[in-house]
Amino acid sequence: MLKGIDISVWQRGLNIASTGAQFVICKATQGTTIVDPCCDSHYRQAKRLGLKLGVYHYASGGDPIAEADFFLKNIQGYIGEAILVLDWEVQQWRTDWAKAFLDRVNALTGVKPLIYMSASPCNSYDWSAVAGADYGLWIAGYPNKYNVPVPPKPEVKDMPYKIGDWKFWCIWQYTSSAG
Question: How many CA atoms lie within 13 A of 176 on its CB side?
Fold first, then answer.
């Protein structure tokens, strides 16, 4: 199992080498106007270290096509070497919004992006169209209240959360800090 981190401007100045991460997923954009000012420096630092890479777009809930286009415009140099992710934390009931964004990114890049969300919206809404289109799941759920070994095994039976319409997850974010 690989251990990794997701980072943004909130981790400005982070020495990635000191984290022990094997992959880094950097916040790239948000909505249609925000570019994370640390994305490129974080990305280049992780790349120099030989780590696996990813970039994500934090959904603001505006026009999904415009947000996807803005994301892609700002990550051109990363396509083909980084996984692409939609960070879905707003308007969780709008699964059609998420599907439109993911479809647009896939259509323009040929890359199937992942979708990130916490366990609650993953199980509270109908994600069958997203899961059925083979968009992978990055689920956030912190098992410290469960008797779950950390790091957990990447098997559905070991996940203390239901994962909605998905058969498996690609990434499980099981802590929000080191460890």
Answer: 7
- By the 10 Å C-beta count (0-12 exposed, 13-18 middle, 19+ buried), 71 is classed as buried
CB atoms within 10 A of CB 108: 13
110-142: burial string, b at 16+ Cβ within 10 Å, e else = eeebbbbbbbebbeebebeebbeeebbbbbbbb
Question: Which residue, among 162, 176, 172, 167, has the nearest Cα to 140 in the 3D structure?
Answer: 172
Residue-wise pLDDT for 34-82, tens only, equals 999 999 999 999 999 999 999 999 999 999 999 999 999 999 999 999 9
3-state secondary structure at position 172: strand
Q: Which residues pair with 57 in a beta bridge?
A: 29, 86
Burial class of residue 177 (count of CB atoms within 10 Å of its CB; 0-12, 13-18, 19+): exposed
Concatenated DSSP letters of 17-41: GGGT-SEEEEEEEETTTEE-TTHHH
Which of 117, 128, 125, 120 is CA-nearest to residue 170? 117
Residue 119 corresponds to which amino acid?
A: A
